[in-house]
TrEMBL record:
Belongs to the heat shock protein 90 family. This is Chaperone protein HtpG. SUPFAM superfamilies: ATPase domain of HSP90 chaperone/DNA topoisomerase II/histidine kinase, HSP90 C-terminal domain, Ribosomal protein S5 domain 2-like. The gene is htpG. The keyword ATP-binding applies. It comes from Belnapia rosea. Molecular chaperone. Has ATPase activity. CDD domains: HATPase_Hsp90-like. Residues 536-608 are annotated as: C.
Amino acid sequence: MSETVERHEFGAEVGRLLDLVVHALYSDREIFLRELVANAADAMDRRRFEALTQSVPALPEGASIRILPDKADRTLVISDQGIGMTKEELARNLGTIARSGTRAFTQSLADAKPGERPSLIGQFGVGFYSAFMVAERVEVVSRRAGAEEGWAWASAGQGDFTLAPASREEPGTTITLHIKADAEEFLEPIRLQTIIRKWADHITVPITIARDGKDEAANEGTALWRKPKSEVTEEQYAEFYRHIAHAFDQPWATLHWRAEGTTEFAALLFIPGMKPFNPVEGERDSRVRLHVRRMFITEEAALLPPWLRFVQGVVDTEDLPLNVSREMLQSTPALARIRKAVTGRVLSELKSKAKDAESYAGFWENFGPVLKEGVWEDNEYRKDLAPLLRFRSSAVEGWTSLPDYVSRMKEGQEAIYILVGDDAEALAKSSQLEGFRARGVEVLLLSDQVDAFWPERLDRFDDKPIRSITQGAVDLSKIGGGTEAGEAADVGKLLPLLKAALEGEVSEVRATDRLVDSAVVLAAPAGGPDLQMQRLLRRAGRSFGAGLPVLEINPRHALIRKLAGAEGDLKAEAGTLLDLARLQDGDVPRDPAGFARQVAALLAGSLD
Ligand code: ADP
Ligand code: MG
């Protein structure tokens, strides 16, 4: 071995993973070809894009992925003209597991039904390693587009790999598999052809297989989205979806249409059936792919608004030039028209899919919080989004919508009531709900992060104001059915006493009819952010100018009735009332240790 060859150990994870892949997926070995071809196609797409945006040599006209089986040498070569890899990229991409560990992979393998196994390979980012299912040794020679030198990576898949300088005339990657004795079927052009047809027909880069010294086309290469719907099968759609989305599930919705007229484009979009396996934190832009006359341009054209970023797919248009620039992506009216048309179409699909409540609930649980961001930030679509929202409710099981809520509103009920917090279960038990429950008034329970924000922007639905029940004074007197059990005390003298005792801690003390079993409750002053929202905002590190809370007291409660007749400044009692109200909302008393001592002393007294 020459001096320039470096030897590297695989990460411990890779070693174990290789073993697993080679042994556990034996019956699905043919998918190694899908993985290598998909990587080659990705690399060519990346080169095309980088050539537009950076100084990288353009992809040659007619570039293809070549597959060359050689029975005499027992090698299978897969070569592409894509972006290539530097020495560091070879070591990093092919020497470590990027996205997840062996343990998760093993677990999923154990849980998977046989038919699901091939998809696991791609899902766990172990695609490249699947080559070792059929090869006893793998050599990769790669030259990064824009770089002068090439590098060779080689491994027998047994714990280590080598890196050495190598020459390659053109940028791209060549992978040579030294095929195992029991895998010679993968040297048969016909067998390879069948695999490509089955797994990779949607890839638009031409793929050829060498046969008797000639390169023969192996894939149809017609862009799937350009075909009439009637010619595409469900399975072809699903396989294409998995390819572009790096996903492994069935799409929940498939939208395939052509727009003709002022804007011309073909679109094939998918709404995933599950949350992405590895959601990129902080990722906010839509990654729907933009093609121009079939050619992939970029996935950074923000074809859909951020709140539809879970949608995957392709938009292919004739209305842009092939050499579209970055600036153009931002400002061209043609693209603005396409964005509008595509967004509208996705919304109308959601509207129609929402008719199947059970199926829509699944979608909502996956992507509802993302969709709600649109209500907060998108003036243009806020109204369209409102009926698509789903909520937990104090009155019904499962999910409900604003139109359904409105249809259940009580006589005399003027507003749509909401309660916001960060824990759905705690919300359902909140004392804030007592008076509403007693009067049979439904309250929507909101517990996602974004719920702290959007109600501020969507303040009405169907002409009914949307109101947080912890904000401002709620007047339930117009609605009948309350439990007016017990006599209300005259709190005329008590209110100013309590207010004086709690100077600087509350902005007001008032009587309320929204409590039944509890003595007190806190509310936010009208006009300021709602109490639970204040808590969420604090947690999200946002500052806000909230006024002091309002202490509301229940004049029918035994404790308040007694206090109404008591003498003195009631300083200690007022403090305890405030602490009780804080506790009910899941907050701590102002002086937790002092509060605990006080309760202990009271208990001791009551046991005397
Ligand atoms: P994944 O494709 O899911 O990222 P793989 O194991 O298939 O996982 O590939 C690992 C990485 O190696 C790829 O993300 C890519 O960066 C790199 N890679 C693999 N094959 C090629 C290729 N033919 N050209 C350029 N880069 C490649
Ligand atoms: Mg891959």
